[in-house]
Design brief:
Distance between the termini: 79 Å
Largest sheet: 2 strands, antiparallel
Helix content: 40-55%
Order of helices and strands: EEHHHH
Structural class: alpha+beta
Strand content: 5-15%
Radius of gyration: 21 Å
């Protein structure tokens, strides 16, 4: 069975590259990744992005590929810690006699 792929599917939002260009379709992202230097291309984050692109090209949600590419693009950025909400304190009031 031959599986058809649709590399012309657009992302919900274009991916902005550090040089100002935009990746609009899955094909744009795949082309960008294949043009990376081998040392960058072989990084685990880019390999995951490639895998996500191939899955999405076969019919998955484009958000999956977008997340993979964004994680690879930002792999040198320190991970942001989630903000913690300040804990509210409550005073228990007992029954009044």
């Amino acid at each position: 069975m031959v599986t058809l792929t649709d590399w012309q599917r657009p992302f919900e939002e274009p991916i902005l590259l550090p040089d100002g260009r935009e990746l609009i379709t899955l094909h744009d992202a795949a082309t960008y990744i294949t043009e990376l230097p081998k040392s960058e291309h072989d990084a685990p984050e880019w390999q995951s992005a490639i895998e996500a692109l191939m899955l999405v090209a076969r019919g998955g949600p484009t958000m999956l590929a977008r997340i993979g590419v964004m994680r690879a693009l930002n792999r040198h950025e320190p991970a942001q810690q989630p903000r913690r909400k300040q804990v509210k304190s409550y005073r228990l009031i007992g029954p009044t006699s």
